């Protein structure tokens, strides 16, 4: 599974793509982030805390 990590850096939106074994791995790596399924099948992991 690939994941797009959407995050903000100095007010700028940046997207990082990386592979995860599954959704649980994504959560374990990005423990303070929230993942959701998007229409293309990838996970968009959006930082929910600054």
The radius of gyration over CA amounts to: 10 Å
Extract low-pLDDT stretches.
none
- Reading off the top of the CATH hierarchy, the class is best stated as Alpha Beta
Which strands sit side by side, in order, in the main sheet? 2-1-4-3
The domain tally reads: 1
Count of beta strands:
4
Could you explain how this protein is built, in words?
There is one protein chain. With 50 residues, this protein is mostly beta strands. The chain has a single domain (2-47), classed as Ubiquitin-like (UB roll), CATH 3.10.20. The chain is 14% helix and 52% strand. A four-stranded mixed beta sheet has the order 2-1-4-3, covered by helices on one side. Strand 1 and strand 2 (12-19) form a beta hairpin. The chain is elongated and about 30 Å long. The model has no long low-confidence stretch (mean pLDDT 62).
């Amino acid at each position: 599974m690939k994941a797009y990590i959407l995050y903000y850096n100095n007010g700028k939106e940046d997207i990082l793509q990386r592979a995860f074994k599954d959704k649980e791995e994504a959560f374990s790596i990005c423990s303070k982030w929230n993942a959701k399924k998007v229409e293309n099948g990838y996970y968009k992991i959006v930082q929910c805390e600054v």
